[in-house]
Amino acid sequence: MRIIDLRGYDLLHHGSLLLGRMEMNGIHIDVERGKRELAAMQEEMDECINIIMKHPDVKEWQHKRRKHFNPNSSDQVGDLFFRFLDFEMTKQTETGKPSADADSLLQTHHPIAKLILKLRQLKQAQDDIKDILSQTVGGYVHPSFHLHNVSTFRSSSSNPNMQNIPVRDSEMARVRHIIIPRPGNQLLEFDFKGIEVAVAACYTGDQNLIRYVTDPKTDMHRDVASQIFMIPPDDVPKPLRSMVKGGFTFAQFYGSWWKPCAEYMWKDIHENGYSISGIPLLSHLKQNGIGDFESFAEHVRSVEADFWGNRFCEYARWKERIYAEYVKNGYIDTFTGFRLQGYMRKNAVTNYPIQGSAFHILLWTLIHLQKAFDELKMKSKIIAEIHDSGLIDVFPGELERVVYIIQKLGTEYVRKVWKWIIVPLRIEFEVTEPNRPWSEKKPHR
DNA sequence: TGTTCATGG
DNA sequence: TATCCATGAACA
Predict the structure, then answer these.
(1) Cα–Cα distance between A110 and A412 in angstroms, integer?
(2) DSSP single-letter state for residue A183
(3) Which of A108, A183, A263, A361 has the highest count of CB atoms within 10 angstroms of its CB?
């Protein structure tokens, strides 16, 4: 992997300076609240452990195995459920042992499965908070951000990693309670919507993909869901759309194929029982001749053939073209000035330039945002960056101005500089009240 | 140290 | 016909 020209050099040079500046700024931490959360989590964990250890199945396991049960050991948990209690093993680890991940455990419907998972969540949240507190000095933590670790020329973060702090799970999102703005300030988060898909449209020039990311009246995930489940586009329920988004469309973009996609979706629709205008999805499928996994998989196979053969045929051709280029030359070049070389699998070749360049749009925006802050003598500070989003500690009275500048830079100016961005970009903003934690961010406008 | 599981994009 | 890229912790 190397830089091929001044565009790439410039990004790394100014990008490094920016990330260094961010690192020096640091993030304000509510240390007292952190300590309270740790204590509260410990109590909840003790409660879980108590119930787990009292369960007759665990006691019997300890007796027969002549060992103290450790609920943090996935080896032991897997052994308990899938060997000792003989639940059906639906998933193996790479080395052939029964998997003890969240999915596998939930499928047992055993009363302590949920407790073990809750314990895992609490433990990780507690570890995250401990990790942050241990590296906080004078109320501020200074995470590292790097540009030299990732094969795609994305960034990474460590000590502590600010790029994988939980946000979806309500228990774990408690970690965000301790991340607060400077006194009197607000936290502003902005993120590029669907930027990887937008960048994929730029690289591939696929007319249908370009239309989907350009025309807000269209909806790719809804249309694909409509095709897979044979229902009118307007009848696609939101949760089903979102399942298809991750389980089929993105999986396909990343290089998956019909069989694993079909397995994932088939399992999901059995667990989550969607209904289409009052009719259970499974009955609806049966009415359309799909009554078992084999017929569903066969159908998904045909949807996949249409996906790459018709819907996104230019994307498919680009994938072949770029891979052939890599095989011939031993490298591929990105729009942002980098040469990707060395051993890459086919799926990597078709994904790296997209992933890297999507991040570079954010990086460019942040570099110029910092420049604006300096030139206008503004007091807001950039404090973190998460691949397609930025986190700003906003000084009182500067909020609207900061939002305006980000909007201008990230959706207009970047397109004047990088003509390869041939589709519109969209940014959404979320903000907290003054002095309130990151967990309380609300949509802005 | 390799494996597994967790989180984020 | 391998779902892309990371970091961190615990266990064995």
Answers:
(1) 54
(2) T
(3) A361
Closest nucleotide over all strands to A358 (CA to C1') = B9
Does A437 sit behind a cis peptide bond, omega within 30 degrees of 0 on the bond before it? no
Q: Which residues touch A37 (CB under 8 Å, ≥6 apart)?
A: A125, A126, A129, A174, A177, A178
Shortest CA distance to A372 belongs to which of A337, A396, A407, A397? A407
Residue A338, φ and ψ in degrees, nearest 5: -125, 145
Rounded to 10 deg, the angle between the A346-375 and A313-329 helix axes is: 100
Residue nearest the C1' of C2 (CA based): A256
How far in angstroms lies nucleotide C7's C1' from the CA of residue A295? 41
Task: Report CA(A163)–C1'(B4) in Å, whole number.
Answer: 21
What secondary structure letter does DSSP report for A92?
B
CB count in 10 Å sphere of residue A429: 19
**Length reported for chain A:** 445
Protein-to-nucleotide distance from the CA of A361 to the C1' of C6, whole angstroms: 18
Cα–Cα distance between A89 and A99 in angstroms, integer? 8
The protein residue nearest B8 (Cα–C1') is: A164
Pairing, β A144-146 against β A156-158? antiparallel
> Hey, what's the torsion of the CAs at A169, A251, A196, A333, to 10 degrees?
140
Q: pTM for this structure?
A: 0.94
- Establish how many alpha carbons lie within 13 A of residue A291's alpha carbon, considering only the half-sphere containing its beta carbon: 3
pLDDT, tens digit, 9 for 90 and up, residues A414-437: 999 999 999 999 999 999 999 999
Distance CA(A421)–CA(A354), nearest Å, equals 12
Q: Can you tell me the distance from the alpha carbon of A363 to that of A155, in angstroms, rounded to the nearest whole number?
A: 9
Look over chain A and give the mean of its residue pLDDT values, rounded to a whole number: 94
pLDDT of residue A2: 60
Q: How far is the CA of A206 from the C1' of B7 (A)?
A: 33
Name residue A92's beta-bridge partners. Answer: A98
CB A188 within 8 A of CB A180: no
Q: How far is the CA of A227 from the C1' of C1 (A)?
A: 22
Question: Closest CA to B7 C1' — which residue?
Answer: A164
pLDDT tens digits along A344-396: 999 999 999 999 999 999 999 999 999 999 999 999 999 999 999 999 999 99
Residue A303 structure tokens = 């949807």
Distances (CA, A) of A54 to A62, A112, A314: 11, 10, 60
**Which nucleotide's C1' atom has the smallest distance to the CA of A359?**
B9
